[in-house]
Amino acid sequence: MMTAPSELGFFDGRSFSLIDYRHGHTQVVLRGFPPFDDAVVESGEGVVLDLRFLGVQRISCWKDIGPVHLRVAEVAERAIVESRIGPIGRREVFLLAPDSIESYIIAGRVVWAEFLIPSPFTLPSPLDSQNREEAETYQPVGGFTYSTRTS
Q: What is the pTM of this model?
């Protein structure tokens, strides 16, 4: 599996939900679920998009998010968030919705990839190496994992 650096700023219309939050490991995983259509029912599998945020300082979002427009807050947006919650430090403010600063995750970086996994899509994220069986069994679609930083 290769990790490719990527600029952030994309929209994905899948329905996203918070599937993993580990305070002690400071990580959050959001999963974008495929539409449950005839192809998914017949094959018993579908392509999910996992977003794994690392070095999480704070989250502000519902468990069920819907479509995601993932981007890094602009300077003015970041200043508004800091005025509400206090200093953010060297972490990024990752916004989850267009034209809004209400849904966000403050973290060091985000890593993402698509995976073809079996329905009902409840497996732990293969992006997390602690999920050894899933990480070994399910490789990213296209062989790439994307990251805001490769460090």
A: 0.89
Buried b (16+ CB within 10 A) or exposed e, 8-36: beeeeebbbbbbbeeeeeebbbbbbbbee
Per-residue b or e along 77-92, where b marks 16 or more CB atoms closer than 10 Å to that residue's CB: bbeebeeeeeebeebb
Euclidean distance between CA atoms 34 and 14, whole angstroms:
6
Q: What is the pLDDT along the chain (151 residues), one digit of tens a residue?
A: 444 444 578 899 999 999 999 877 789 999 999 988 887 878 889 999 999 999 999 999 999 999 999 999 999 999 999 999 999 999 999 999 988 999 999 999 999 999 999 988 999 999 998 899 999 999 999 888 888 874 4
CA angle 148–149–151, rounded 5-degree value = 155
**Contact, 34 vs 63, CB < 8 A?**
no
Name the burial class of residue 129, with classes exposed (0-12), middle (13-18) and buried (19+) by CB atoms within 10 angstroms of its CB: exposed
